[in-house]
Amino acid sequence: MVSAPHEAMHRIFQDHPDLFSGVSKVLGVDFAPPTSVTLMPTDLTEASPLERRVDTLLRLETEDDEPLLVAIEAQGKKDPDKPASWAYYASYLLTKYRLQPMLLVVCQDHATAKWAEQPVQFGPPQWPLLTLRPLVAGPHNMPVITSPAEVRKDLALATLSAITHGKGPEIGTILKAVTTVLRDEPDAVKNPVIEFISRGLGKLPAAALWRTLVAVDLSFYKSPIFEEVREEARDQGRQEGRQEGREEGREEGREEGQAQSRAEGILDIFEVRGIDVPEAVRERITNCVDLEILRHWLRRAAVAPSADAIFTDD
Fold first, then answer.
1. Model pTM?
2. Start-to-end C-alpha separation, the chain
3. Kind of pairing, strands 68-74 and 56-61?
4. In angstroms, rounded to a whole number, what is the distance separating the alpha carbons of residues 297 and 274?
5. Helix 171-182 vs helix 187-201: angle between axes, to the nearest 10 degrees?
6. Less crowded by CB within 10 Å, the N or C end of the chain?
7. Which segments carry the region annotation Disordered (predicted)?
8. Looking at the predicted structure, is the pLDDT value of residue 113 above 90?
9. How many Å apart are CA 10 and CA 103, to the nearest integer?
């Protein structure tokens, strides 16, 4: 079954095809930046009933004499059958297009990435016929981009960094740096990045952190994430208001719902980052009803070294 992280890990190259050159450079292989890009059909099915599809296939025109075909595969776990499929993709692409193929495998965990980057030989041991050597991008070699200045230099690479490091301890700082930069970007730039990271993190604990960081500044983004968080707060406010039966009760209930949502978001961030929250700190957070103070604490929670450090500049 195709998952959201699977789709995000390869579809980002469809929106940002020049990202392949940046990733390959990080991996120590120098490919010239493309002068033009064509999104190719991903169906590699032959006339026989067997269906084979690569995740993303790009044709990159470069300043070199010959174009390059890049097959991009998102791999979520070890699969002993995959190397044979990848070898088939490479030979099929070479046969069909008469262009040199490359394979980039994108992973989210170290074990899968290390497995995928091992060369695989096909043929008898005394005379191997083929050797498969994919480029592999994962948490073991993708940069940990935690500085807003670095995010601005290459927003696509920073997005992939967030996706590939979704299980790592630095994810909170990475996501905070991305949201800092996105506040200054137009909707056409920020919206796809927010959705890519949301899909890429899938059901990882860091997804709750990303959801909270996106929703904390409710004025800078309107997306399904934003609308869902805002509607939750509104629903809770309406329920409180109906119980009171007065207009002021509805307004008070709405604000209390927002305050509770932000307090829970702060505690979620600490949980994702593995930071212990003393009971006194927990009570101070959950008892606070000032939305601006909670918003300030929420932002600090992504980078604070300890739970009580969010209060230090009050």
1. 0.66
2. 48
3. antiparallel
4. 17
5. 160
6. N
7. 231-260
8. yes
9. 12
Structure tokens at 277: 């929250």
Cβ atoms of 161 and 103 within 8 Å: the answer is no
258: alpha, beta or left, given left = phi > 0 and alpha = psi -120 to 50?
A: alpha
Q: Which range has the worst mean pLDDT, 78-82, 109-113, 171-175, 230-234?
A: 230-234
Type of residue found at 283: E
* Residues comprising the chain, all counted: 314
- Residue given tokens 């929250």 in the structure block: 277
Q: What residues does 68 pair with on adjacent strands? A: 60
Q: At which residue do the structure tokens 């390869």 appear?
A: 10
Asked if 35 and 17 count as a contact pair (C-beta separation under 8 A), the reply is no
pLDDT single digits (tens) 237-257: 555 555 555 555 555 556 676
Rounded Cα distance, 141 and 126, in Å: 33
Kindly give, in sequence order, each residue whose CB lies less than 8 Å from that of residue 257, ignoring residues fewer than 6 positions away.
232, 233, 234, 235, 236, 237, 240
